Amino acid sequence: MSGNSGRWLCAAVVAVAAVTAGAGGSGAQTAPEGKKLVILGDSFTANALDFSSDHKCLRGDTAWPTQLSTLMGLRDGDQVSNSSCAGASIDNAPGYTLTVEARDADKAGAFGPDTKLVTLQFGLNDHWGGSAQNLWDAMQQCVFDLADGCGTDAVDQGRMPDSQLISGASYADRIRGVVTYIRYYAPNARIVLVGYPELFNADQSTVCLDFFGVVPFTQPRGRTVVEYFNRLDQAQRDAAAELKLDYLDARALTAGHGLCSPQPWVNGVFDPTIKFDGLPFHPSPEGDSVVANALYERYAR
Length: 301
What we know:
globular; alpha/beta
């Protein structure tokens, strides 16, 4: 059935005005039945990127939402809504945000009593605690800097965002409005906050990336990068607990299979042994399969 964009305006009056600011509609419409599976997320969800000048939200054919849809026996479009987009953040506009994705999904009739599962995977593209940096921008500068690296002094020098600014309370506050909206209009859905896979072991101080499957690059001073992933992982757990969401611990599911491991489930750079055209630092088809299967077994059977 058709979507109901006008609901966002109504919700602004009754419950989630902060989330729906700027949304509009031409009035009440027939309430949609909802899609069985609704996907909201960033590049770790979409696992594809359009490098053309007019950016589009591509979704990979081996990404975990595609694999999950197959496991659930669902038809894309009719029964699945996937609004995930590379570069998406929780709320760092301009650009795709959680609110934008949820609103797009709602206009397509995604949320309703038939909705079974809604997934959210966000955080790595966000700024925290008023910082002007996100992790990816900072990593481009420090990971390949063999002189200064990404050691603990990188935060004091302003080259890396301070991971101590990331908290579960802040994360929960930033997604609360959309979660409230989904719960109201998709009352029978399980809402799952999906964590990020293991890129680096939580205790290590170095970061590594494979080139062409044979040339590893190691940054010996990488502790702040690892700590950032650690803090975000904890913030997601805490936010899920505060909002009473399910949490999929993708990091635990992929433990021991990070970058430069003997059996990586994360793409290097042009690595033919994993996925030659895969996005660097993002899940391989095997890594996505693990996440898809876990979601299916726990929440979608």
